Amino acid sequence: MGMKVEQVLHMVGGAGETSYATNSRVQEKAIFEAKPMVEEALREVYKTALPESMVVADLGCSSGPNAFHVVLEAIDIVDDQSRRLGRPPPEIMFFLNDLPGNDFNSIFQSLEGYEEKLKEEKRERILPFYVAGVPGSFYGRLFPSRSVHFFHSSFCLMWLSRVPPGVESKTGVPLNKNIYISETSPPTVVESYQEQYRRDFTTFLKSRFQELGFGGRMVLSFLGRTNKYAPGGELSQLWGLLAEALNAMVLEGILQKKKVDAFNLPFYTPSMEEVRAVIQSVGFFDLDRVEIFKSNWDPFDDSSDDRIYDNVISGENVAKSIRALIEPMIARSFGEQILDDLFSRYAKNVARHLLEEKTKLPVFVIALKTKV
Fold it and tell me: Which residues cross the membrane (predicted)?
């Protein structure tokens, strides 16, 4: 892509129509589904470590309203556990991590509102807590050794640390000619994506193991795939419709073919078998619990059936949510002037697809604990 992922991989900031704050309902659903596992992990961490001060880190916090979910959950659970055990409440230190381009300003501007919300609930006591931002990639060390009690991450681990090197030849010729792996991708491209995922997730797990203290745990949620065949995964369809919109703009002379051919997303949705294999190969964690649920493409469609109620509106909703995720990368590669046109085309492509099939996204939620 000719760019560092850290420079362009961030959600759209602010609170506008295309911002992540306005279009983050898919992540919100994942946080809701993961809540029982998060609560259980926090209870076990507290009972095991009995810390006077507790450290909780949210990796890939982004900038929308979801950034403080884990903060509020941790305050409630730890307060309840300290009461049950008859212990004085611990102080809690929250670290909110994301890449440097994240809109941290929005997060901290909204912090006051969350503090007021706690006061308005007229609680008997509010645990003393502190919040700090930690910019940097979680594919590497972020915290001192044995300093963190609990890690949480939602909708982040499908993003890779880089575009896999195998998407182009040694002379720089694009091999994939698609923005993600698909049925037309050469086997070497698919293997390169898989190897990059294994390398990144291995680095992630090793880094977190060094940072977790006694009894430490993690709850991670991310998009996966139910199809063992990587090019046939559910996200391949979603990205394929965006690639279709880009290629249509090439045919109309709006975009250069060589630029579109060279554009690849630093993204990979693993199968559960791949996730388990990496965890086992690293050897530092026990996979304590696994949940898999399906989320509709349209983040505002909460129905559980296979019926599409308005494919046009659903197409627009999907386009807005995807735009909130990748607008900076698209703008960097093709210019901001194409954004409205591109995502309008994409919305129509998604709407057409939804008339044929109500495709859903598999979401993996896993709870990990350090081996004794």
Answer: none
Please write the tens of the pLDDT for every residue from 191-230: 999 999 999 999 999 999 999 998 899 999 999 999 888 8
pLDDT digits 0-9 by tens, 14-32: 445 544 444 455 566 667 7
Question: pLDDT, tens digit, for every residue of 274-289?
Answer: 999 999 999 999 999 9
Sheet of 360-370, strand order: 129-135, 91-98, 53-59, 148-154, 212-223, 360-370, 285-296
Can you read off the two tokens belonging to residue 337?
């002037």
3-state SS track over the chain: CCCCHHHHCCCCCCCCCCCCCCCCHHHHHHHHHHHHHHHHHHHHHHHHHCCCEEEEEEECCCCCHHHHHHHHHHHHHHHHHHHHCCCCCCEEEEEEEECCCCCHHHHHHHHHHHHHHHHHCCCCCCCCEEEEEEECCCCCCCCCCCCEEEEEEECCCCECCCCCHHHECCCCCECCCCCCCCCCCCHHHHHHHHHHHHHHHHHHHHHHHHHEEEEEEEEEEEECECCCCHHHCHHHHHHHHHHHHHHHHHHCCCCCHHHHHCCCCCECCCEHHHHHHHHHHHCCEEEEEEEEEEEECCCCCCCCCCCCCCHHHHHHHHHHHHHHHHHHHHHHHHCHHHHHHHHHHHHHHHHHHHHHCCCEEEEEEEEEEECC
329-372 pLDDT tens trace: 898 889 989 999 999 999 999 999 999 888 889 999 999 999 87
Nearest Cα to Cα of residue 353 among 319, 311, 303:
311
Strand partners, 58: 96, 152
Q: Are 58 and 153 in contact (CB under 8 A)?
A: yes
Percent of the chain with pLDDT over 90: 51
Residue that the structure tokens 């996200």 belong to? 235
Both structure tokens of 41: 């992990």
Check if the beta carbon of residue 158 is closer than 8 Å to that of residue 267.
Answer: yes
pLDDT in the model for residue 10: 47
CB 162 within 8 A of CB 189: no
